[in-house]
TrEMBL record:
Localization of this protein: Cell membrane
Record-annotated ABC transporter domain positions: 337-568
Organism annotation: Streptomyces yokosukanensis
SUPFAM superfamilies, per the entry: ABC transporter transmembrane region, P-loop containing nucleoside triphosphate hydrolases
Transmembrane segments: 28-49, 55-79, 139-157, 163-183, 248-272, 284-304
InterPro entries named in the record: AAA+_ATPase, ABC1_TM_dom, ABC1_TM_sf, ABC_transporter-like_ATP-bd, P-loop_NTPase, Type_1_exporter
GO molecular function, one term: ATP binding
Keywords: ATP-binding, Membrane, Nucleotide-binding, Transmembrane, Transmembrane helix
Domain of life assignment: Bacteria
Protein's name according to its UniProt entry: ABC transporter ATP-binding protein
Length: 585
């Protein structure tokens, strides 16, 4: 129970709550002022009604007073309307701000965000929890304004007769304790409810990502059961929420009428002793209702409790430290890459161990090794998609972590085995980057990646919506390659980005890609012997260590090196020295 509560009220949660309030300061203040004005108008009404009743009973003219009462009722309606609109604006803007911060942070965290929270849970936090957390400023402003009701009610009772206020104040501590317990219990069980929702969302996202496997295995029913397994827990958390709310309402229903009754009894006594008029008794009865009106407070506290728990869940994500960037720039150079004693741990295991590699500027290094040798992780670290746990990576003599974010991303281009293809149209997808590539650069890059032909055959060519464009795995890879080519940079890293291409296309692309380009360094993660043979040098990675560096021709002499390519069609066909010769001829 405590840990649940802690997450909702953690230090990062409180800091984030304060930041949300600060950013919506002016709007929240306006909402608070309008809501307080509405409460004040509500407080004025009983006094006006009471006085009008007294005048009626005395046979005096009351037209002006009746008009005044009607005016206050109208004003109340107007202020309530304004408060609703302002409340909606406050919620929407706070939610938008939170979503902006969270999205930016999740993208800055990169793969760590998914590894720590899971994609589905992150979506649940970004969509559901951000909307709930966004209601906090509005709910707080409304709560402060709602507090003016009971406070004003007590003051008004005191003005009518101090005894009336005394009766109410005697019961006030009970009401205060009741509200405090309600706020605490609500936050705790709502946090639980939201956490279970996040788990269901996470399981659903996994299933959507793997629906082909699930269908092929005929395991739809088992998956449905797995996704919905936390439902009983969700139901328990939901029931606890209702019990907390029900208990608070029941206690309020018992305490508030008793206090009302007490005020009315004293008012009746004072009327009998001619210390109060009939109108004042009427006003006192209405003020007693206002002063004990904890219903509105309970409602606002419930909203705040939900918002507080949701803010805690957003703060958990924001507390995950994102990699920082320096402010440095790169000297002129052609992308000399150095990995110095690079080590990396994953899942508590050493995946890269003391890797020392130098790729001279303008040359191509192929990284080969058995599955799981650490090639992809090395590719990530080489362009700072991930940081090493030990050692340094330098580009043209500058540590990657010292480079400004823009400088780093402009200098390094990536293409992947299964590229994500963001952007609305194919043109956007290829142009996608910090600065969009020009239409000419997009087409030139598509030609280099051998994507131009199939793009032109699409219904609207480059203007075809990416989501509607039918694509094979190899065509997707070519779009990913085109995106990398369109953005230049002095270091190009291809992480198995040619693996789905047929051998002819792969051969053509590597020919253009590896043609002497003194201005750019290339790092290729390769599985095919033919690709390795075309690189200037090959780094052979074995269980996270560099086993050897040399030309493919030199390394091919070792049987264990040849075994890396066992099963590769090219290797089967006897590609070795021949492949090296062919590539260079
Ligand atoms: N986040 C992670 N948590 C735990 N282990 C990880 C994580 N990321 C990678 N690994 C492990 O690190 C090792 C190296 O992974 P990597 O993807 O770099 O291998 P690879 O050489 O590219 O393999 P392949 O050729 O099959 O793509 C693997 O054993 C992998 O299971």
């Amino acid at each position: 129970m405590n840990s649940r509560h802690d997450s909702a009220a953690s230090a990062p949660g409180r800091t984030l709550s304060r930041a949300v309030l600060r950013q919506g300061g002016a709007r929240c203040a306006a909402l608070c002022a309008v809501s307080t004005a509405a409460t004040a108008a509500g407080l004025l009404l009983p006094a006006l009604l009471g006085h009008t009743l007294d005048l009626l009973l005395a046979g005096a003219p009351v037209a002006r007073w009746v008009g005044g009462c009607a005016g206050v009722v109208l004003l109340l309606a107007l202020l309530d309307g304004c408060a609703s609109v302002l409340g909606g604006v406050c919620d929407a803007q706070a939610t938008a701000w939170l979503r902006g911060r969270l999205t930016g942070h999740v993208l800055a965290l990169g793969p760590r965000a998914e590894a720590r929270f899971g994609a589905g849970d992150l979506v649940a936090r970004l969509i559901g929890n951000a909307a709930q957390a966004g209601t906090a400023p509005g709910a707080l402003a409304a709560l402060l304004a709602a507090l003016a009701g009971p406070v004003g009610g007590v003051v008004a009772l005191g003005l009518i007769d101090p005894w009336l206020a005394a009766v109410l104040l005697a019961g006030a501590p009970v009401l205060a304790l009741l509200l405090r317990a309600f706020a605490r219990d609500t936050s705790a069980c709502v946090a639980d409810y939201q956490r279970v929702q996040g788990r269901i969302a996470g399981a659903l996202a996994e299933a959507v990502g793997g629906f082909r496997t699930i269908r092929a295995a005929g395991a739809e029913d088992r998956e449905t059961a797995r996704i919905l397994a936390p439902l009983p827990e969700l139901s328990r958390a939901g029931h606890r929420m209702w019990r907390v709310q029900g208990r608070a309402a029941a206690r309020a229903v018992t305490v508030a009428p008793l206090l009302n009754l007490g005020v009315l009894a004293v008012a009746g006594l004072l009327l009998a002793r001619h210390r109060l008029s009939v109108g004042e008794v009427l006003a006192a009865s209405r003020y007693a209702v206002l002063a004990t009106g904890v219903g509105v407070l309970v409602g606002q506290l419930a909203v705040l409790g939900r918002a507080r728990a949701a803010t805690g869940r957003l703060a958990e994500v924001l507390a995950e430290p994102a990699p920082g960037h320096g402010t440095g720039g790169l000297p002129p150079g052609n992308g000399r890459l150095e990995l110095r004693a690079v080590g990396a741990l994953r899942g508590g295991r050493t995946v890269l161990d003391a890797v020392d590699l130098t790729v001279p500027g303008g040359t191509t290094l192929a990284v080969v090794g058995r599955s799981g040798a650490g090639k992809s992780l090395l590719a990530q670290i080489a362009g700072r998609l991930a940081d090493p746990d030990a050692g340094e990576v330098l580009l043209d003599g500058v540590r990657l972590r010292d480079l400004a974010h823009g400088e780093l991303r402009d200098a390094v281009a990536y293409a992947f085995e299964r590229p994500a293809l963001p952007g609305t149209t194919i043109e956007d997808t290829i142009a996608f980057g910090r600065t969009a590539a020009t239409p000419d650069a997009v087409r030139a890059a598509a030609r280099r990646a051998h994507a131009d032909d199939f793009v032109r055959r699409l219904p609207d060519g480059y203007a075809t919506r990416t989501a509607d464009a039918p694509r094979s795995g190899g065509e997707s890879q070519r779009l990913g390659l085109a995106r990398a080519f369109a953005h230049g940079g002095r270091l190009l890293i291809l992480d198995d980005a040619l693996s789905s291409l047929d051998t002819v296309t792969e051969h053509r692309i590597t020919e253009t890609l590896l043609a002497a380009d003194a201005g750019r360094t290339r790092l290729l993660i390769a599985h095919r012997a033919t690709t390795a043979a075309r690189a200037d040098r090959v780094a052979w990675l074995d269980a996270g260590r560099v086993r050897a560096v040399g030309t493919h021709r030199e390394l091919w002499r070792e049987a264990e090196y040849r075994a890396v390519f066992a099963g590769d069609a090219a290797a089967d066909a006897g590609v070795g020295d021949e492949a090296g010769t062919e590539a260079r001829s």
